[in-house]
Amino acid sequence: MKNLRGALPPLTSLVVFEAAARQLNFTKASKELLVTREAVSRQIRLLEDFLGTQLFERNGKSLSLTPAGESFSATLSPSIENIARAAQNIIRNPDPESDAGSDTPTAPLPESLPAEGKILVVDDEPLNLTMITELLSDQFEVLTETRGVHALKVAQETPDIDAILLDVQMPEMSGYEICRQLKNHFLTQHIPIIFLTVLDNEEDESQGLEMGASDYVARPFKPSVLKARIRTHVELKKTRQDLEGLLAARADNLRHAKSAVTQAIDILQAVEIAD
Questions:
Q1: What residue spans define the domains of the chain?
Q2: Averaged over 89-99, what is the pLDDT?
């Protein structure tokens, strides 16, 4: 079960998928789940983004299962392990008809590469942390925290964090307040902050950016886009650090040069006085 953790999608999305697949209607599924039709659609898109394939063909308020959707729904069961295995199979083979009858063995996974950076992910939902960790762990070392006060402590005590992914809607301390405190502390003010949240209107995005965040990503997101944005901000941070190091070295060289010139002048003046 431990090895299957990365193949487990958000459980809320699985529940929505099961209801929609059974009724093949956004509106009926939303009534059963006591949520809006848009919420049902959003959760299904989140599940599709996680699996990397389309589960439904949409036609207005109605749905129809794709071959991948039929394969996935046929494998669903109350067992979390079977659900995870079903997701894992879909990720490996989004089009079940393309490899029908194929006996070609699955290619071995490549060896792990050195981490490109260290990322702190802050979210009060453990399933979100699991999904983000599995998404990023092939390129980054990932730290996770569910509470803002703990996240602030980790950020201050871990000097080599390259970026922070931060949810907005957090208990006890909102993501905006966490961002404000990070940007006001000399140990953490240089770390890029990327808000990762379901709040997707312009006012929320503007507020996040005005507080000093480097980026704002709304859920559901495309995994490839999120990884590209994180990679960009990590590279920018490292480039800035390299430039600051060069400037510090240049300033140090100038101080040494100034000191050498001053010493030379003192020596010349002493020689003139002696003459």
A1: 2-92, 118-232
A2: 56
Tokens of 174: 């909102």
Above 90 in pLDDT, residue 121? yes
ω into residue 220 within 30 of 0, thus cis?
yes
Other CB atoms within 10 Å distance of the CB of residue 251 = 10
- CATH for the 118-232 domain, from 3.10.50.40, 3.60.40.10, 3.40.50.2300, 3.40.190.10: 3.40.50.2300
Classify residue 52 as left (phi > 0), alpha (psi -120 to 50) or beta: left
**What region does 172 belong to: left with phi over 0, alpha with psi -120 to 50, or beta?**
left
Q: So what's the pLDDT on residue 110?
A: 43
Scanning the chain, the segments in alpha helix (DSSP H) are: 11-23, 26-33, 37-51, 67-75, 80-92, 126-136, 148-157, 175-183, 202-210, 223-274
Residue appearing with tokens 């299904």 = 44
β-sheet bridge partners, residue 229: none
What average pLDDT does range 189-201 have in this prediction? Answer: 90
Q: Are 24 and 60 in contact (CB under 8 A)?
A: no
User: Is pTM beyond 0.70 here?
Assistant: no
**Does the structural domain 2-92 have CATH classification 1.10.10.10?**
yes
